[in-house]
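Morning, I've got a small favour to ask if you have a moment. I owe you a coffee for this, so here goes:

…
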Amino acid sequence: MIDQWLQHKWFLRFIALALAVLLYLMVAETSSSNNASSALPIVGQSSMTLDVPVEVFFDEVQYVAYNVPEEMGVELQGPSSSLTMTKLVKDYQVFVDLTNLGTGFHRVPVEARGFGGDVNVKLDRETVEIYIDRKQTIEVPVSVNLLNKDQLPDGKVAGDVEIEPSTVKVTGGASRIQNVKEITLNVDVSNQSQTFTREIPPTILDANGNPLNVSVDPNIINVTVPIYNESAMIPIEVVTSGEVADDFRLVDTLLGETEVRVFAPKAVLDELQQVETEPIELDDLTKSEKVTATLRLPEGATSLGKKEVEVQVLVRPNDETKDDTGELTERIRLTVPINVRGYDRTNFTIQTQDVVSVTLSGKRSLLESISSNSVNVTLDLTGLPSGTHAVDADYEVPKGVTVISPKTIDVQLTGVDEETETSSIQ
């Protein structure tokens, strides 16, 4: 029967292969005994160290885990061939299993697998202390702190910042994010001469100034900082020339917009009381009409927010006091002190005008009894960040009186820390 096997070529090939392997092993063993430095990888002993990422197994939908090391050093000892295969294939894991653990601190073992049965594995740490917290998502507003505004080019100011999005979702451990009320982005405006936009990744810091391990969605905030020439909102004064026809009178000149933004050096703005129109001709007018008036550029100003305004010229017979809609159109202008509220005086300084010229409309008999003490003007700065803002004016006036202008008043808020700030975080 053996003779029959010897006649099959596959049987002979198997015998040849077995003898070749046996011979190889014998030579390798002899070589290993005679010269350790020339040991063949398949039987030689060796060691190596790897830095392996630490994986975490837990319910990521409901919980977050803190204090997990990102990676861990692993010392391996075993046959060189096995270590080489381990390094090439990388079919191994270092992990901590938090399955079925509740919230709080837990000391858990660090485990390893996939390194091969003939490889001895030694980890840098056998256990780690992990903190498990319940996952929570909150929505918080985003604000911007402008740094180095005093280093803007001469005649330039930073306007109201545009933030997109203005709120973000913060996800993390409930105990970690409970004190997160707002995200503040720091933007350096030094030497900026024109409007610019930056993409800023939001960072949330703990009480010690260290980044919190939380996720923010979206993870990029677009911040646009308008850079203007120095400017202010200035009342418009209608100038007329000539006289209306006999037996008629000029009741009023009603402006479509009562203020215009003037761009000029601060010294000019501080002295500028009004912007006049080019004279509107009234000669022989016997009826009301709407005209477009050109605004005069004040001396020392560089430009105006607009060049023209619409003016309703109201002309009535001497025995009439009402316009076509039945509204009384008599007006007066009073200088009224400005009250400011809603800002933290310990953290901010404020720059705004002390008084404002207010235009009022109402019955002539009522207006004749009104003085500056009859009008109260308040600016509410609650929640405003650092920067220049056109703040809506809140008026208290006698019943039957309407405020024509101004609707807004410019206010500049400066953080106390910004006055000495010399470097930018972003």
